[in-house]
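On clarity, I found the account of how folds are encoded harder to follow than it need be. What matters is that the chain and its backbone geometry are given together, residue for residue. For the editor and my fellow referees, an illustration may be useful. For illustration, here is how one protein appears when written out as sequence plus structure tokens:

___
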Amino acid sequence: MDSTKLCLVGVGCLGLLTSCGKLLDYSPDPPKADPKKKAYPVDRMITDKKGRALDVTITGKSPNSIRFLGKSDGNSHDYLISNLSVKDQAFVEGLPLNRKHKMVRPTPPYIASREKELEELERKITRLNDKEGNSKSGIKIDSLRSEIDRIKPRAEQLREQIETYKRQNPDH
């Protein structure tokens, strides 16, 4: 088979793929920016550094990660670009940043536990203040104020711990 026929067969296959409605780009070349066309979504088979492949629809990119819908489960996922294969890292680098996409980091357990306790204390203080406002008994009011005064220092301590952690760990 000469190279002319081989070339035509290749074009024919490409035409067949595009006639199905979607052209899946598996090349390492970054996509060409077309100002008239939106960059997202992008259908692609991505591969991680361990060689595992996943068919996805890329919906956004931040400086360090991509967001995609997994075609197998339909769920949205954030994935670090550094964990992609070299070929896919090169492809993704050619995609524009999507300002709406932001990698969501889980709340560190240290902060989560303190925020949960703080929320519970604030709800309790609110309930006690409501009871105090509705109470007519002086003894009952004193008791409620005493309970509020006992809780407030712990709530303030938790706020300080959370703020200190966030100052010392700005990435979280």
